[in-house]
Amino acid sequence: MNLLPRVLILMILGSVPLFAAKTPNFVVIFCDDLGYGDLGCYGHPTIQTPNLDRMAAQGVKFTQFYAAAPVCTPSRAALLTGRLPVRSGMCSDKKRVLFPDSAGGLPQKEITLAEELKTKGYATAAIGKWHLGHKPQYLPTNNGFDTYFGIPYSNDMDRIASATKYREACKNAKIEYFNVPLLRDAKVIERPADQTTITRRYTEEALRFIKTNKNNPFFVYLAHSMPHVPLFRDKPFVGVSKRGIYGDVIEEIDWSVGQVLKTLQDEGLAGNTLVWFTSDNGPWLIFETHGGSAGLLRDGKGSTWEGGMREPGIAWWPGKIKPHTNHSIASTMDIYTTCLTLAGAKVPKDRVVDGVDLTSVLLKGGKGPREAMFFYRGEQLYAVRKGPWKAHYITRAAYGRSQPEKHDPPVLYHLDHDPAEKHDLAKENPEVLVEIAKVVKEHKAKLVRGKNQLNTLIQK
Ligand code: MG
Predict the structure, then answer these.
(1) CB-side exposure of 248: number of CA atoms within 13 Å?
(2) Which end of the chain, N or C, is surrounded by fewer C-beta atoms within 10 Å?
(3) DSSP for 118-151?
(4) What is the rounded CA–CA span in Å between residue 44 and residue 33?
(5) Catalytic residue among 31, 44, 72, 339
(6) Active-site residue among 31, 44, 91, 131?
(7) What is the DSSP letter of 159?
(8) Residues 135, 120: Cα–Cα separation, whole Å
(9) pTM of the full predicted structure?
């Protein structure tokens, strides 16, 4: 038999693919301090989010999707490494996040999602808030990203102290109160960053990157600086929302999401691009109307109650995903493992990876593989969820001077029956506490804590 018929037979048998399957592109849209109750599709009565509502209707809308920490730096470290922040040293009992005078950052030995995707030929862009170290060695361009455009830490930092008091500066914000830099790769290109246009400019950067890389696989990490206080929005969004300035900001983010999805569709990329939308932690409630809403969940940013870590979580991939609402427990850390699996890249085997693969949940629905969720505040394990049950070993007010309160026995909630964590059922369910104690024991026995990265300051 000559070669041509043989090749044809092999193709028909499937041994030689007619076209190599294209690995999917990934876009991760990550908000800052967005609450569980802040989107139309998650029940907000006056904030209008038509694009996110459509994304949720066409995709998978998770109802029990968790950030891995209740504040920015550890949560972001976990998203990009698939690991609880306590393993990388990116959390602390003394400094809850990195500050402009912090010397540390994400350790080089951590393997970011971007670094692993690079091994599969992905073009990678980080756009927006970074907050994993702003010294040159810690910037996105040294962590697997080809390019970076954004404010490297929180938008309320580098405050000009003489201008006005912190709370006042956040609530009646002016650009010049916060001397935050805007970076292009490792270079400061604007200072203070004009935050009124920041959501729009992050969006334009993302669209440009998508269009430029449409012929090769790409990963865009679009981490909005908003709706973290101080709140800023571009002119077309001033006064548009019935919810006031906070609503304006969310509606601009919704516009941004719409632009990303539309561009993917216009460029013929939608069927081969998985887009995620979520946030790093819950709403910053101490900022009152300038903070968001956790909906029916208890408390917000900074706390290990549900409102601190349970987030809107939406995955969109038209033609591939089975559109539905999913009640599985899932986490930002699972984005890591799921994307690497879909890209045919390897999930690191030489370390504990906490992310689980959600591919089957996305494509077919059903129950996901995640059984437990650990709720750390800084370096301490405060609470553990197993199935519908969550036991709090320690509780503490999100902010302020209050001390941690230890519970023995722990307080116990059934989150399916009582998502607001109101009714302690510990007394009636001692066997559940025994089960959860086993999970805790196993977790602690294997835990290797990373060297703390948040406590060291830059020497002056
Ligand atoms: Mg945050």
Answers:
(1) 17
(2) C
(3) HTTT-EEEEEE---S--SGGGSGGGTT-SEEEE-
(4) 16
(5) 72
(6) 131
(7) B
(8) 27
(9) 0.95
